[in-house]
Design brief:
Chain lengths: 175, 376
């Protein structure tokens, strides 16, 4: 039962809070730490893919593999920083930035037609054919003023997603 | 009986006849109102609902909550409580524990010295031998319960030995079986364990008529179902006790009941067990400790306090499927013991959920996109 005995000191909590730009309250950080220790079974200091995949609700999510790549092996500080985009206090820009990172799997700062197709494939599975996906995407891109060979940057994402707001909040249950 | 494809693995078979999880999951699943209107780039790029669900699962999920043990609350934090606690530790480890170990050893000696002769010598007189062995097993379980200073309150009429009935109970630890066995010699269906527990299972428990299963074997389900049916038909067999959750849960929640016990065509008698965690958490977290460690933890605590309720026998209502029957009985047990029901299969502790759930989400998404594409 390593979880309860490895307590966070006030310094630790403040350091983590600093790292996530104060997007979580101190109490939320303590609860996230309890959750982190619960998932990290042998107190290695990070959560492995296997341990994430032992959460059935997570496995059922179509984007679980993509998120797994981003969150696998993070230590607690980075884990909280990752989740900070989901905080209710996070700005729309931070949320859009996370969405952009999910699309931009090769981290080159731009999202190509192929990148979006890959995410669409995760979301629709075998219920849409590749041709259907290409056709749908091509059509909506054209209507928005982009061509198939265009690369979308973070600014483009902000333009497309920005004005109707992005609702991406997760509440940390504080007991 | 569902028969969609014969080549599915056993884990998806387990899932094929589950009630729809989406019916149970709270508002998380209902966030997305039906999107409508012409399809735009914004709609395809906005993956925020899916991401929120995934992050929500990382932060807290109802399945992992079922297997959380209570961390021991420290109460010895100041100058006068600390010596008191030290004294308590001294008492528990150096006086009470050896006494209990001694009581248990005496119990084993009495038991074995009566059981082995009876088992070997009375081979011809089956009925007499069985009665004596039954009483001996009940006595031995009594010794076990005494070795943790078990304070067990039984409520309700004691189980009677009649054919065509099974008993079902919620499961927190292997000691559930011992606590119930102390009152009535049940035949139980158990996972075959390695080590000294396995030895006990194959020698002594064999005499009360236990049935073994192996979670990892795919074909096992049908073999076990047949054994169960045979056992229940026999008139002289001990009443059968089944833990339909299939795994140990932390006594605050119940996971879904497997329907095996509910399609045998006999009366189901529910038993609810609730542990009072005041002195010790009786949940056996098999991921974190072996059974021996768990027993030692119990033997060095003050007491194990629990309530056992024998509830009203239930029958399959006309027009009710075995799954609905199982959920109804689970509701009866959970209400009596004050447990919350969660819609997860306990075997997800050992295997991944079937791809069916992810596929349903993918299907919903694909259909919504294609439909909106048509709209002008």
């Amino acid at each position: 039962m390593g979880s309860a005995s490895s307590m966070l000191t006030q310094y630790d909590i403040e350091e983590v809070q600093e790292h996530c730009n104060h997007l979580f309250s101190q109490q939320e950080i303590v609860c996230l730490y309890q959750r982190f220790c619960q998932l990290d079974r042998n107190a290695k200091g990070f959560i492995s893919s296997d341990e994430f995949l032992s959460i059935p609700e997570f496995v059922m999510n179509p984007l679980s593999q993509r998120l797994l790549k981003m969150v696998d092996g993070l230590n607690f500080k980075d884990f909280v920083a990752f989740l900070s985009a989901f905080s209710t206090k996070a700005s729309a820009h931070q949320k859009i930035e996370l969405i952009f990172k999910v699309y931009d799997s090769d981290r080159n700062g731009k999202v190509s037609f192929k990148d979006i197709l890959e995410v669409l494939k995760d979301l629709s599975g075998s219920y849409m054919s590749d041709e259907q996906r290409e056709e749908v995407l091509g059509q909506v891109l054209k209507e928005a003023g982009y061509s198939k060979d265009c690369y979308l940057t973070l600014d483009d994402f902000t333009k497309v997603l920005g004005h109707s707001g992005v609702k991406m909040d997760v509440e940390v249950p504080v007991d | 009986m569902n028969s969609t494809g014969t080549l599915k693995s056993s884990s998806s078979e387990l899932d094929l006849d589950r009630p729809n999880i989406e019916d149970y999951l709270p508002s998380g699943a209902a966030i997305q109102q039906e999107p409508c209107g012409k399809l735009r780039l914004h709609d395809l790029l906005d993956i925020s609902p899916t991401l929120s669900e995934a992050a929500g699962a990382i932060v807290d999920d109802s399945f992992t909550r079922c297997f959380k043990s209570n961390p021991p609350e420290p109460w010895n934090w100041n100058i006068y409580l600390f010596p008191l606690w030290c004294f308590g530790v001294f008492l528990r480890y150096l006086i009470i524990f050896p006494t209990r170990a001694l009581v248990l050893t005496i119990g084993w000696i009495i038991f074995l010295s009566a059981f082995i002769p009876v088992h070997l010598l009375l081979k011809g007189h089956d009925k007499l031998r069985r009665n004596i062995e039954r009483s001996l097993v009940e006595m031995m379980c009594g010794f076990f319960v005494a070795s943790w200073t078990g304070v067990v309150k039984y409520h309700g009429p004691r189980p009677s030995r009649r054919p065509k009935q099974v008993f079902v109970a919620n499961h927190t630890s292997m000691i559930d079986f011992i606590i119930l066995e102390q009152m009535t010699a049940f035949a139980v269906i158990m996972q075959k364990h390695p080590g000294w527990v396995g030895l006990l299972q194959s020698t002594i428990l064999e005499s009360v008529g236990c049935i073994w299963f192996n979670r990892s074997e795919a074909k096992d389900r049908e073999i076990v179902a047949r054994k169960l049916r045979d056992h229940v038909q026999g008139t002289d067999n001990n009443p059968l006790l089944i833990f339909p959750e299939g795994t140990c849960v932390n006594n605050h929640y119940t996971v879904m009941f497997k329907k095996g016990a509910f399609e045998l065509g006999c009366t189901v008698c529910p038993i609810a067990i609730k542990y009072n965690k005041i002195f010790v958490d009786a949940f056996w977290n098999s991921r974190k400790q072996s059974f021996t460690t768990h027993l030692l933890q119990l033997m060095t605590s003050w007491a194990v306090v629990c309530d056992v309720w024998y509830l009203e026998p239930q029958n399959l209502k006309p027009g009710e499927t075995p799954i609905e029957f199982a959920e109804r009985v689970r509701d009866i047990i959970s209400t009596r013991a004050g447990l919350k029901m969660v819609p997860w299969d306990g075997y997800l502790k050992y295997s991944r959920p079937s791809p069916k759930h992810r596929e349903r989400k993918q299907q919903n998404f694909a259909e919504s996109v294609l439909r909106r594409l048509e709209e002008k």
